[in-house]
Fold these 3 entries.
Entry 1:
Amino acid sequence: MGIFDRDKFGVQQRHRRLLSAQEAYHIKDVDTDQDLLWIKRDRFGRKTHMHVFPGDPKTAPEIMTIKDLSSFDAWASFDILDNETNQNLGRTKRNFWSSIFRENWTIWDGSGKVVGKVKARSLLISLLRNTRWIFGWIPVIGWIIESFAWLIRLQFDIYFIQNGEEVKVGEFNRRMTIGDKYILDMTADSDQTFNRKFAVALAVLLDSAEQR
């Protein structure tokens, strides 16, 4: 089975030294825990691109680039570039103002047509995370709310637009483990209408750009 022929992917952030020049992720087989991809994001500089490798970045070719088009994660916008086919798979952008209430992203294909959406599953958790600074000055209550918002992470649903309707094709969920470990589950998209390379890139961005 090829890397992108599956419907489920494990996503795990690799914790590195604070001053490391790159943030790193592993994409894993959910059944065997075998590494499938290495992804590194530049930490310093106005643009922080991400680089995808099918093995050790020191020896493996860069098969995909997630090109950062913005200077701030709040207005995050990225092009997903397939280096193997020299294709632009599409673009995704965080919708800043509406994300104040509920985190959401828009997805375009390579021709610039809107083809999908990503939405936080819980409005309540989104509001709690995004408004917790209001209560930060209140003794005890502020600490409780901040702790709760840190422990309860966002889960996302992925939608593909078909005939003008949003059809749910995937989920991005945090595993019940210590550390930043997630499952990208695209089993609802049995026909693989949603490009798996784009889906993997999107999953990493939902952790990295959303600072989950």
Entry 2:
Amino acid sequence: MTKQRPIPSRTRASAPGVLTRERILDAASEMFAERGVEAVSLRELTVKAGVNLAAVHYHFGSKEGLLAEVFARSSKPIVKWRLDLLSAVDRDAAGRPYLEHVLEAFLRPSLQSGRRQNASFVQLRARLALERDDAVRQILSVAFDASSKRFIEAVAEAVPGLPREELYWRFHFLIGSMFYTMADSGRIQTLSGGECDPGDTDEALRRMVAVFADVFRSAVWQQSLAEVPTQPGGKESSVDS
């Protein structure tokens, strides 16, 4: 009986095919990070990658499919790093994880991922965090929801008295602070006269862990907005951006 040859497929790409695929991913990661997804056309991308349009459609199907692969390629190491750190956190005598260790395990891989991989992904993540497109939100959800829920449960275990709704809000603020720090807009450098630099990820991490440990431990969650002090004349304080 003659042995059948395996049928070629996209999952069993030839060496040239693998190189083509990687060139497309590298070009897309850089261009999406610099200019945003919508601003980059597939034709521009193929010129930078040195491939034809058919290659993009063959390997990824569409720009959305390409973005999903770009994100998956770089997000998986971050998720693994996070979960490895989470599995190693110390616990107190009651068996609860130390909150600071949980927060560091969540934040460190995102803030320091630029040291381990192309820094353009850090910029891309910060850009996509502000997108309202449903397809982009789904890509983020697939990449991070499962691991983020693990961390939410770990924080709940570390701070058992915190109501669940309040926990979600505070985790939301943690994510926002993380993304703004990753984006490194230059605002804090300007305001501080250069004394503060989010590019110093060790310092940024140390301060974020300390601040958000206090945030999650705070017992104040029932104060109504009506009780927030206002400026003279009844105007609430403005927020700098």
Entry 3:
Amino acid sequence: MIFDYHIHTRYSDGTATHQEIIDRAIELGVEEIGFSDHYGYYPNNWTTTEEVLSKMVEEVLYYKKSQDRINVLLGLEVDFYPDRIEETKAVLSKYPFDYVMGSIHFINGDNFDSDPKHPIYSKYGINRLYELYYENFVAGVESGMFNTMSHPDLIKKYNYYPTKDFKSLYRQVAKVLVEKSVMVEYNTSGYSRPCKDFFPSDEMTTIFIEEGVQFTIGSDTHKREHLLRNYRLAKDRLISLGLKELQRYQSSPTPLIDFMI
């Protein structure tokens, strides 16, 4: 069994069409994919807008119903903004999403994800930036909007790490995830980012496993070649850390030992 739940298309910041992704996934032996284009509000060049969201949903539903070569799910990756919760809920309620992933890309209106030299890094300092990131992360979990929180330590993307020990904070985050029955994504794209590490790190993954957090997986695909990127290494890493299974959105969990071919 192979699945990938984090895939972007031309509807946000991807370069491929739905059909191109489906064809590539079938070539790779993938049995289930979830399209999860970006949705958000703050000005940026990677999110789809409410004006085109209905067209995107319509197209995914078409592929979901019109072919039987691969199971297609309708997902969405949503930027979490503490001041836009009700507005976001209203938009999400209009469509039959199979799952919705929450992401933190902005802190107090500043985007830390697109520029390693963004002033936000010096504005707060790395330790405080981590604290603010996880304040937003926990608020996203508690909002009730998301099945899953994606790339849970994206804040380290550009290889910025705090000088203080955050293990106790990670454990608090894990307890909230379990309490609210929200999963986390093991995002394999991190290994191809400047940090050269999966999202989440081994340290965070170990704490999450100890606290009973459930995991899904996704490649954060933005082009055809990204599908399943770093998956074999991710599987070996997760097994070594003690994870037993990966969650699916409409089926029983897949034992990690049986994941992939």
